[in-house]
Amino acid sequence: MTQSAPGRLRVATTSLAGCFGCHMSFLDIDERLFELAQHVVLDRTPLTDIKRCGPCDVGLVEGGVCNAENVHVLREFRRNCRVLVAVGACAINGGLPAQRNHLDLGTCLQEVYLTEPGLARGCMPDDPELPLPLDKVHPLHEVVKVDYFLPGCPPPAEAIWSFLADVVAGREPRVPRELIRYD
CA 20 from chain center: how many Å? Predict the structure, then answer.
């Protein structure tokens, strides 16, 4: 990989429709984050609080695509990342958010906001700030080109570390099979 800073890769992360569990696994690298920081420049991540992604070598994306804002964020992120990694079940196949895919979206929204008692009090949200929901939740590869898939729900910190260590070393990333979990 061509590096963005002398001897250092630029790495960014983003989260779409998911639970943020994959980012928690990334943070669970713990003290090795200091070692990682010697080899990478962190762009948009939970550690930097940068909101927009600049040009990066590697982008890690967790979560599926469930609304118009997710589509916009993912496409912009893809444009800025030479290598894009789908991290976790939601990014790879829609995960838990995709459980709604067998339901009609309109019927689902009516049930939640108009039929059931709750804070909405029979009112369908229509604030223009709310992103428009898609009819179904999509995995990343249905919207943009994905270069690598890192499975798990979430992938364990060791799997993320192994992947990033290979990238930093200039090796083709290969996560040992024993680190791949689907639970």
Answer: 8
